[in-house]
Known about the structure:
The structure is a homodimer.
Chain A: E1 5-6, E2 19-25, E3 30-36, E4 53-59, E5 61-66, E6 70-74, E7 77-81, E8 87-92, E9 98-104
Antiparallel strand pairs in A: 2-3, 3-9, 4-7, 4-9, 5-6, 5-8
Amino acid sequence: xxxKHNLLIDIPTAIPDEIFETIISTQNVKIxxxxxxxxxxESDFWYDQHQSEWILVIKxxxxxxxxxxxxxxxxGDYLTIAPHQKHxxxxxxxxxxxxxxxxxx
Amino acid sequence: xxxKHNLLIDIPTAIPDEIFETIISTQNVKIxxxxxxxxxxESDFWYDQHQSEWILVIKxxxxxxxxxxxxxxxxGDYLTIAPHQKHxxxxxxxxxxxxxxxxxx
Lengths: 105, 105
């Protein structure tokens, strides 16, 4: 309890697949760290989630696509994705790791 | 829905009191941005909360005091505070704004 950890460290040097790490998981909320580096969703893949998702870019750069728009995100940007609001990761920068914080609730 | 905002901007130039801004608030979860600049809890004040709190330092530097230890936090550091785990802010750097992200759940 109350041990500190750091979101910016323990990043593998090679990231063949996007990394999803659960930080907190309870019945009502899940907090996840996601690490991307040039990864994007398959071209015909859409996330369709039953929970709300609050997503924050801690570091890096990405583009999230929705059915009606595409939103560019850089360090510090956040947005809320409503339940069943379809979305996909259109692009993440290949230049550096993009570290996301996702809160599902 | 899905409008983006940024955690690192809209910081007032003068911060006489700590700033608490609610980003998300539902029955089960609250996400808050807190901005400190040299602020600390009153010397005899302890937070004693019924919810769990996950706290992340987005930027800056701080010290959180618990009954049995004091933990120094800098950019990227996070920890979980259990319900009713008494704590206080022992110190935040006066040199720059400390931006916290707090998730109560």
